């Protein structure tokens, strides 16, 4: 089968690779759609970061498909089931897994990044406990958004956000825009999006942002304090992963508020801890998700996510580098690009 494999920074190749074999407790899934994620872009530009050095993993972890083969011990799925796969593969033996925090498993495996081949291929095999059926009312493109929606759902749930709070979202890429939609559904009174791209600020407004700020034209901290009557936001969500947004996101938070870090970082940041300590601000992080996939599938199925604002392009696997990774890099109008190995999907 064909698959897009990682060989190094700016070196992803579509190659022929063996068709995966199905073990007794696994199912084989024919891929319909797989989204290019921000973490995929980090690996493309600066990797290997999460991908273990020296490995040629098939990338992609935001995918949907159809079961085409089941292992001999599998009883809860049949051939033809429409599914998504939660890409975290816990060890279930470490302390993190035993306490329910398998998103930070101490022996991590992750489809498309760490050890396990991912969804930028024709087929994938997965343990049955990582596989979830999707409703008949959900199309495969929507299903490919379940994984990133799980990321933003976990971010909100793990923060101190409360219904009616004012929030700021720094970075209106795919995660930032999905977060804005989720925060709107969760009842945020003000949603302030900070983003340099004119197009993405427009999409942020359509997604539910009440205000947008171009940080190249105005000071985001001063503007946010103006919008919030001098108080600051209750929670700011950092989705860009660079020094200026980290500083501005922290400085935009009210006394006793929270900065929630979602993004991956290619470079470390520096900051003065007194900024947080003297105002009792909390800095916290969120890592993927745990124990929420069924609820997220239902949320997506209910239509709270406007996929037409998020999915901006659909391409074939053969074109993943130029029409996918390079397009995300060079065209700021692109948000989420979906990839398929099937010409019939286009």
Judged by helices, strands and strand pairing, the structural class is alpha/beta
Largest sheet: 7 strands, mixed
Residue-averaged pLDDT, rounded?
Answer: 96
Estimate the helix proportion, in percent: 25-40%
What number of domains?
A: 2
Instruction: Just name the CATH architecture of the largest domain.
Output: Alpha-Beta Complex
CATH superfamily of the largest domain: Medium-chain alcohol dehydrogenases, catalytic domain
- Care to count the β-strands? 15
Low-confidence stretches: none
- The succession of helices and strands, N to C, reads EEEHEEHEEHHEHEHEHEHEHEHHEHE
The CATH class of the largest domain is identified as Alpha Beta
State the CATH topology of the largest domain: Quinone Oxidoreductase, Chain A, domain 1
Q: How large is the share of residues in beta strands?
A: 25-35%
How many helices does DSSP assign? Answer: 12
| N-C termini distance | 19 Å
Which value, in Å, is the CA radius of gyration? 20 Å
Principal-axis shape: globular
Layout of helices and strands, plus pairs?
Layout: E1 2-8, E2 11-16, E3 26-35, H1 38-46, E4 62-70, E5 82-85, H2 95-98, E6 123-127, E7 131-133, H3 140-143, H4 146-158, E8 166-170, H5 174-185, E9 190-194, H6 198-207, E10 211-213, H7 220-227, E11 233-238, H8 243-251, E12 253-261, H9 273-277, E13 282-285, H10 293-301, H11 307-310, E14 311-316, H12 320-330, E15 336-340
Parallel strand pairs: 8-9, 8-11, 9-10, 11-12, 12-13, 14-15
Antiparallel strand pairs: 1-2, 3-4, 3-6, 3-15, 4-5, 5-7
Helix pairs in contact: 4-5, 4-10, 5-6
